[in-house]
Amino acid sequence: MDVTALASWTSSALNIATINASGLAKALDKGMITITATFLDKNASASLTVTAEGTVVTWGDQNDGGDSTAVQSQLFGIAKLFSNEYAFAAVKQDGSVVTWGDMNYGGDSSAVQPQLSNVDEITGNLRAFAAMRSDGTVVTWGDLTSGGDSSSVQSQLTNVQEIVSTNYAFAALKGDGSVVTWGNTNSGGDSSLVQSQLVNVTKIISAKNGAFAAVKQDGTVVTWGDPIAGGG
């Protein structure tokens, strides 16, 4: 999850596990740590016991992922851990995904569970997740209006190299330099007005409050989304 300008992350014991600016935790040794995510409008804190086997123990706000008892038997062999504001998503070493937390905002992935295989990375916004698979396809779930429903662009979500999010939308950069967007139209989910310009894109940057900026090979920039957030 890219949480630049959305949250800051800290680990209570860097010798046991580190956590980067995107909220991705990396286990280094056995032990107990507290991972704290501080959001602009709320604080979310969960504690993890990380073992050499990749198991996870959580506690904190039960509604937002502090209670993982429903999936505890599946929380082993964990390779990567991601979050949005209300839920967690764990990628296992076999490429499968386990989710828990608020069922409306990404904690329930049952509708797409058969598709959650060979997953490499997961991006979260405030209320939804987008998983990028090893074949470049994308699976989404969570709040439908925040990007949890990608059905309108699903046929375009191939050869995806990177997924970036605002608070309520996603943008996928494809291998050919084109861009696909979905989610809340006021938060960058609709790029139709600039779609013809979104070619030869090398990088996408988001302003979390609702806008995207795409950098092209020639050094020019294309923006879309909420004008107040820089999308104009």
TrEMBL record:
Gene3D superfamilies associated with the record: Regulator of chromosome condensation 1/beta-lactamase-inhibitor protein II
Listed InterPro entries: Invasin/intimin_cell_adhesion, RCC1/BLIP-II
Superkingdom assignment: Bacteria
Protein name, UniProt field: Uncharacterized protein
